[in-house]
Design brief:
Elements: E1 14-20, E2 25-32, E3 35-36, E4 45-53, E5 60-70, H1 72-75, H2 85-94, H3 119-139, H4 146-162, E6 164-167, H5 175-184, E7 192-196, H6 201-211, E8 216-219, E9 232-237, H7 238-244, E10 252-258, H8 270-277, E11 279-286, H9 296-305, H10 313-325, H11 329-339, E12 343-344, E13 358-365, H12 369-385, H13 390-409, H14 412-415, H15 426-440, E14 445-449, H16 452-466, E15 472-473, H17 479-490, E16 497-501, H18 502-505, E17 516-519, H19 526-533, E18 545-552, H20 556-566, H21 577-584, H22 587-594
Parallel strand pairs: 6-11, 6-12, 7-9, 7-10, 8-9, 10-11, 13-18, 14-16, 14-17, 15-16, 17-18
Antiparallel strand pairs: 1-2, 2-3, 2-5, 4-5
């Protein structure tokens, strides 16, 4: 006999949509019978802190809630069995309406964690960011991710309100692109200025030309500063700012951008004082590490961009530095609330839902003066000696390519002057900045190089700069030594940096403890670099992988990078085919490829 009992209906779980202002995304979650339920089955589940009622519904509290994060465009059509009122209202906003937002629609804790973001704030951010997103679709040659659109909008809002901003997103999230989006919108007012490490000046010129070609760029390396008009972005390095700041006297800028702004963490240095003398309507500081050693470094950046809010260093010490050092949670909450108006800091883990599984960052490095002179001298010697013919020609071409690429890595690799390493190679200095950032964020990093001597130089340099012991995985090790390096690196307390020979470490290894890969030098075959990157981008990897390639601008490395863009990354392309291609060129065309393309 069948049971006569009726089957009870399942409890209804209403889907809620909470807008996350800093990410310009919606968190979808469910609420049933006075409690948070399972996330709707419409995507990958992530845990997000939201403000929800306590079980007795007597008060609100911050809880970690299982959610699915989706972009605004997708909220309109995502299939939900029982959309709650917050979903319906946000769908109406996306369609152009502006109904009153229920609390579930903006249930995000503020920076202090003791209050809920207001409906006015959530609605205003959504409206402004949506408008900026529509504008960026035509203003930039790039498709911005939702959090990047929010970054551009936030920069505009913060500059309008406070005159300056600190964009402190984790490396790899596109601070440069977001800043270009902001700068492009201010081009008609006055000329604009970008100050960055010398090794990045060429990269800024490349990125502006790529994403905002309507902007003109001018690289300034010192001396009298030519007249600049609105629509022009002047690019210069921190050393030039330090030694030629008087040349800027009398120039008023629409925007002054300070990239890798941790350079200015000590307000007593000459470069930091020079930065503060720049007259600009808006100041933007970009850094992945706003605090490297102590909180007073953060004050220096805050004082640079918003001196009217953070003018008193002694007060900052008394209110924040000392009590936080003593372990005061209240002081930490106070600091988060105080800096929230002018600091935007997001981690990859927070925006993972809008990231692809692998981010490619192709950075263009500048040559130092020593590198320029050595590169030109080597090439002139080769031109005088000639390239020969037949088998001898290929040998000589390969030899000169190797020498020029070594100069790009570090001039000491060619001259054997390996005393002081920093400050002599734009590429080494930029790699150092990236590794420093990753060490600060506890992000294990792989560095690939095709040269044994370059790997050994990096081992020594990282030991001297950071006091870390860095293993070097290369072809001269036996199988047992190689297995030991992999085992140690994959352990939770393993080395923070691992250097690998591109050929020896490029295949067959699983190194998923790292999610950051740096290609220190460029190989002819893009498939070889891709295989090396896949040491971390494979089954077992739970994070977004960042792959950074370092290319020295104006050199043969740019030719290699251009070949990568043209060539399909198929495994059947022989590694040496590109060298053979160069060998077949006549002398004039070959020299044209190798010669340094001088820029202003």
């Amino acid at each position: 006999m069948g049971s006569s009992r009726k089957k009870l209906p399942e409890a209804r779980s209403d889907s809620q949509a909470t807008y996350l202002p800093d990410r310009h995304m919606f968190a979808l979650w469910t609420w049933a019978d006075g409690a948070v339920g399972a996330a709707p089955p419409v995507g990958d589940v992530e845990t997000v802190p939201l403000v929800v009622p306590t079980p007795d519904l007597g008060r609100l509290k911050v809880s970690d809630v299982d959610c699915v994060l989706i972009e605004p465009d997708r909220l309109v059509s995502v299939p939900l069995d029982w959309p709650g009122r917050s979903v319906d209202v946000w769908r109406s906003w996306i369609a152009g309406g502006e109904s009153a937002l229920p609390i579930a629609a903006h249930a995000v804790p503020d920076a202090t964690g003791v209050a809920v973001t207001t409906a006015e704030h959530a609605g205003g951010v959504f409206r402004r960011t949506t408008s900026v997103g529509a504008e960026m679709r035509t203003a930039l040659n790039a498709k911005l991710r939702p959090y990047q659109v929010r970054g551009v909008s936030w920069l505009r809002e913060t500059i309008d309100t406070h005159g300056g901003a600190v964009l402190a997103d984790e490396m790899g999230l596109g601070k440069t692109l977001q800043t270009i989006g902001c700068v492009a919108g201010r081009a008609e007012k006055l000329p604009q200025l970008v100050v960055c490490p010398t090794s990045l000046v060429g990269n800024w010129a490349h990125e502006i030309a790529r994403f905002a070609p309507a902007l003109r760029t001018m690289i300034w390396r010192g001396g009298p500063l030519p007249a600049v008009e609105s629509g022009t972005v002047v690019l210069t390095g921190y050393p030039t700012l330090r030694t030629h700041s008087q040349a800027m006297a009398g120039i008023h800028w629409s925007t002054a951008v300070f990239d890798e702004a941790q350079v200015l963490k000590n307000p007593r240095t000459l470069v930091s004082k020079a930065a503060r003398t720049i007259a600009a309507d808006a100041r933007i500081a970009l850094t992945g590490t706003p605090v490297e050693n102590h909180l007073e470094e953060l004050w220096a950046l805050l004082n640079l961009v918003a001196p009217h809010l953070f003018g008193n260093r002694t007060q900052f010490r008394r209110r924040f530095v000392r009590p936080i050092a003593d372990g005061s949670p209240a002081a930490s909450a106070r600091l988060r609330g105080a800096i929230e108006p002018v600091v935007l800091m997001r981690k990859k883990s927070q925006v993972a839902g809008s990231l692809p599984p692998k981010i490619h960052a192709d950075l263009l490095c500048d040559l130092t003066e020593e590198q320029e002179q050595l590169y030109d001298r080597l090439l002139e010697q080769v031109i005088d000696d000639g390239f020969g013919s037949g088998a001898q020609r290929q040998t000589r071409v390969l030899a000169v390519l190797t020498s020029l690429k070594q100069v790009c890595n570090h001039p000491g690799l060619v001259t054997d002057d390996l005393g002081e390493l920093p400050g002599r190679s734009g590429k080494l200095d930029l790699c150092t900045d990236i590794v420093a950032n990753n060490l600060e964020n506890d992000s294990p990093t792989l560095v690939f190089t095709q040269y044994r001597r370059t790997g050994e130089l990096l081992v020594r340099h990282f030991a001297e700069q950071f006091g870390v012991s860095t293993p070097f995985f290369h072809g001269g090790l036996n199988q047992e030594q190689r297995a030991d390096i992999v085992r140690r690196f994959q352990s939770d307390d393993g080395p923070k940096v691992l250097i690998l020979s591109l050929k020896a470490g490029g295949t067959g290894l699983t190194l998923t403890r790292a999610a950051d890969v740096i290609h220190f030098d460029r190989w002819w075959n893009p498939a070889v670099e891709a295989q090396a990157s896949d040491r971390v981008h494979r089954i077992g990897q739970t994070r977004t992988v960042t792959v950074t390639t370092l290319t020295t601008g104006t050199t043969v490395e740019e030719h290699i990078a251009a070949m990568h863009n043209r060539k399909s990354a198929l495994s059947d392309i022989a590694d040496m085919s590109s060298v053979a291609e160069l060998t077949r060129l006549d002398d004039d065309r070959l020299i044209g490829v190798l010669r340094r393309k001088r820029v202003n």
